[in-house]
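We modelled the chain as a single entity of 161 amino acids. Its sequence is:
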Amino acid sequence: MAAIPQQGRFVPDFALPGGILSQNVFERGEYRLCAERGRPLVLTFYPGDDTPVCTRQLCSYSSGLEAFADCGADVWAISPQSLDSHEAFARKHQLAMPLLADTERVVARAFGITAPGIGLRRAVFLIGPDGTLFWKHVTLLGATFQSVDTLSRQLARLSAL
């Protein structure tokens, strides 16, 4: 990826290994951004598996997947931990969205959210069906996260265009 994605601009493709917990099986595979073209994508970056705020955030998003689906959107969660860590995290909390492993922080750097000391900032990017960045929120400290309601409102704005 070249430049940091800007609102209204095309988000370049990337691929990361990931997995999703489905009927107690953690299905691993490659996730490519270009495969999501045609539907909105909620791309959330979180600092770490099984940490307090990240756990609350991803449990909230997992239990809110129906609200995202009602907006026609998929949700991907990205952090620097390994797939094995993601699998344990997904199993422990029954997380139902794909967890992607950006172990080298290549995608996080491309999105401009790496930070010294903490690894990466908590961030959410809403990517439109056409592959452009519609909306983003990047935290400074990462102690809070955007709610399902806030993201659903932004997705409703996107679908109204």
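As a brief sanity check on the tokenised model: Residues 148-160 form the longest helix (13 residues). The beta strands are 15-22, 25-32, 41-45, 74-79, 99-101, 114-115, 119-120, 123-127, 133-138.
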